[in-house]
């Protein structure tokens, strides 16, 4: 789970080293025909906050959000495991799920155990709704036809013919898929070559485009994070434990070692030519 | 009531149109009342629409009436259908082309086509009001989607969430749509900042503005209130509060603002 560091008015567990201990949510999801089901479990290690939950003064808080459908729903529980159901008609594409522990009533003189020495010594009055712990953000694609463990490259990238007769390829990021746009001449050759040399195409066209896309994902996250292609690549990387911050390595893993496959393909072609 | 099925563009055609626009090839089409789109660019959806296509007025002051007309015409939409770019792009380009052209008039001339900056400005303006890209930010700007979503998010909250909003029941189901669309600034401030995703916060803020017309008449007041609530949301989950506590939190923030501005 990723987490944002913020400046809170009092020490918050999970926000840098404000508080000793940990709050680690775990999330799995399944997509059924009419609903998405999210199963959550929480590992909490901080005596003060554990006590507040058992006393009914704080709760685990889950916020599911979908920017495509103006959907934001919140769920709260005192149990260390919970199941959430979201109607399929409420969400599409990327759904983010954030985890917190929040006060559900005012708490005076809040002075949690394990406060960092820089912040210790001062108590705070906490109000209902205030965040006491942050557990990061998970996400999934509410797309029943998309399986991140089996997803082909075509689920996030397409090659198409552009207008110029000749010239360099361009990459476009404004559609649901990343578009590799080839000139008319190149596209004609590509259509022929893809029948015989898929691995070479992966290495020469798709691999560099994907490296570029991974750089774009890191540098322009705010601009593209709602795009279908962005969510799908992110989801595939999450499921396959691929690190997006290493674009060259990540792209090779996503494409299944395209350079090695292309060289192998070339070697076979050359030896076939020599044999004939 | 007569029912028919809504036509939409194909996905590939919406991509094609957007691509043509980005290249600046079709800017002038957006100054033309009638454009013929090829038969294979359209397909019939399973979305049933009720009655005749409503006639929309062009003024910004007509937004509320237009929102109700669009919402009732497309009353069978669910949230996933209402985030389908093929539908909205078709509606702005075909069904409500005349409205879109007049409500979001493009300031572009033959001379502008020679100036790169002006051309880019026109492309962005058209992309904003005639196209959606699949997120709620783009739907807040689209000529038709913005009206439907405004009504959808605010109509009869006491029916959609009776446990929370029962006390707000009103004879006018669009009482909060009216407040939201009472000025462009209220609409943009509230929905642009993502408050529209939380019905608890959205409706409570609109109820506060409805009850306090003097406060809501000031653009600075509304802007400061929404900014303050957004800031509070980063460390306080306001939707955990009961309606009365949330209303009190909104009032308290507003009172502080009114006292300082």
Describe what this molecule looks like in 3D:
- Helices cover 30% and strands 32% of the residues of chain A.
- Chain A has seven helices and twelve strands.
- Chain A has helices at residues 47-54, 184-193, 198-219, 221-224, 228-239, 247-255, 258-275, and strands at 22-31, 35-45, 58-66, 71-77, 81-87, 93-103, 107-110, 124-126, 131-142, 157-161, 170-172, 178-182.
- In chain A, α3 packs antiparallel against α7 (258-275).
- Chain B is mainly alpha-helical.
- In chain B, 55% of the residues lie in helices and 6% in strands.
- Chain B contains 15 helices and two strands.
- Chain B is globular, with a radius of gyration of 20 Å.
- The model of chain B has no long low-confidence stretch (mean pLDDT 90).
- Classes of the chains: A alpha+beta (276), B mainly alpha (261).
- The interface between A and B is medium-sized, with 38 and 31 residues.
The end-to-end span of chain B amounts to 52 Å
Shape of chain A: elongated
What proportion of the residues of chain A is helical, as a percent range?
25-40%
Spans of at least 5 consecutive residues with low confidence of chain B: none
Arithmetic mean of pLDDT of chain B? 90
H/E series of chain A: EEHEEEEEEEEEEHHHHHH
Report the β-strand fraction of chain B as a percent range.
Answer: 5-15%
Biggest beta sheet summary of chain A: 4 strands, antiparallel
Q: If helices are DSSP runs of H or I spanning 4 or more residues, what is the number of helices of chain A?
A: 7
Largest interface: A-B, 38 and 31 residues
Q: Total number of β-strand segments of chain B? A: 2
Q: What is the oligomeric state here?
A: heterodimer
Query: What is the alpha-carbon Rg of chain A in Å?
Result: 24 Å
Overall mean pLDDT of chain A: 88
Task: Work out the number of β strands of chain A.
Answer: 12
